[in-house]
Amino acid sequence: MTGSGGFLLDQVSVTRGEARLLDTISARLPAGRCTAVVGPSGAGKSTLLRLLNRLDDVSSGRILLDDVPLTELDVLALRRRVGLIVQQPVLLTELVAEELRVGRPELGDDAVRELLEQVGLPAEFAQRRTSELSGGEAQRVCLARALAVEPGVLLLDEPTSALDGVSSGVIVDAARAHLAAGRTVVLVSHDLAVVRSIADSVLVLDHGRLVAHGRPDELEYLEAGR
Ligand SMILES: Nc1ncnc2c1ncn2[C@@H]1O[C@H](COP(=O)(O)OP(=O)(O)OP(=O)(O)O)[C@@H](O)[C@H]1O
User: Fold this and answer.
1) Which terms are listed as keywords in the entry (predicted)?
2) Does the interface predicted TM-score (ipTM) exceed 0.90?
3) Matching CATH number, 7-90+151-223, of 1.10.1470.10, 3.40.50.720, 3.40.50.300, 3.90.1170.30
4) Whose CA is nearest to atom 30 of ligand 1?
5) What spacing in Å lies between the alpha carbon of 68 and ligand 1's midpoint?
6) What is the DSSP letter of 183?
7) Of 45, 49, 158, which is best to mutate to test ligand 1, by the most ligand atoms within 8 angstroms of its C-beta?
């Protein structure tokens, strides 16, 4: 495996009560590449993403990051390496500048400004109250907070959901910058045009099963809506 930030899913299943959310998934998500996870609503895409930084755990099977089982890594250290941007942003502090320092307390004012710029927010936002942000602004701040710790892997869940077209572009740009720096992106998206433009490989899930896996140009699923 070249570089770092590559995952191996080995016969991964997740069950909750009677429900089988993921069913014996095996796949390699290469380091330094963008893997997209697509499929209909309820297919298990968010569940799969949450396994990768251990917000959820597998019921059976195992996941390796750079050949080391996730269960052997310290969870907090793992989450610094693997940043997750979720559908519903959760902000933890009162001011935006504090929020960007959550995982990086030593971050200077210039770095705060640069991060805000990177996610398309003006420098004045540093002093804004997090409780007064719009949904799209909150998601950008969450992205900036994740970027602040310079994770090797960025997990992006449904980046277009709470966002207008402009900020969706910001998140896709951040994903591209991350890839250009040789880092890894795993992207859950319903936006097949975005997936075609950015993904190196695509996992297609349906009812918790991996029904296809290949390059975007190889997959019938991505022909839909073209
Ligand atoms: N704790 C749980 N117990 C039982 N079922 C659950 C639990 N969490 C999620 N599910 C179900 O598991 C399935 C997969 O959910 P998941 O959020 O991973 O789907 P998704 O592909 O991301 O969907 P969407 O595109 O709508 O966001 C859904 O049917 C969901 O209702």
Assistant:
1) ATP-binding, Nucleotide-binding, Translocase, Transport
2) yes
3) 3.40.50.300
4) 42
5) 27
6) -
7) 45
